[in-house]
Amino acid sequence: MGTEKFVYVTYIAATPEKIWQALIDGDLTRQYWAHENVSNWKPGADWQLVADDGKHTVHQVGKVQESVPNKRLVLTWANPADVADLSKHSRLAIDIQVAGDMTRLTVTHEQLTPEMYARITTGWPIVMSSLKSFLETGRPYKFWA
């Protein structure tokens, strides 16, 4: 496991329930991320990040470590080629908290290799900005179009 850590915080004008659904419902994630999160979301379950590319390319894999609806989701995160090498798995925690009339969404991605850190430091801000736009306006960021 790497030592790099990335934290991203945003505030979204949506309920924790809507944010949770947008994180775990593949039909919704495809709309703002062009990928589908696939899992049953129970601790210990497998999860996959599958591209909406017509080929269903699996981009990331891991295990659900924690799943507290509307509050917290923790996953391991790895490239499919590295699934058997636990030293190449990182940890992703997404925390959802009410903040007045908004919801605070905190993404903490840690145990990153320098290569993964370089990729996610541009990736997470784009994904979370698209999620925010999607939930607040109905229009996701069309970065992947």
CATH class identity: Alpha Beta
Q: Based on helices, strands and strand pairing, what is the structural class?
A: alpha+beta
Counting structural domains, the number is 1
Radius of gyration: 14 Å
What is the count of DSSP helices, taking H or I runs of 4+ residues? 3
Characterization of the model:
With 145 residues, the protein is α+β, with helices and mostly antiparallel strands. It has a single domain, classed as Alpha-D-Glucose-1,6-Bisphosphate, Chain A, domain 4 (2-Layer Sandwich), CATH 3.30.530.20. 28% of the residues lie in helices and 39% in strands. The chain is built from three helices and seven strands. It has helices at residues 16-24, 26-33, 114-137, and strands at residues 4-12, 35-38, 46-51, 58-68, 72-77, 90-99, 102-112. The chain has a seven-stranded antiparallel sheet with strand order 1-7-6-5-4-3-2. The mean pLDDT is 93.
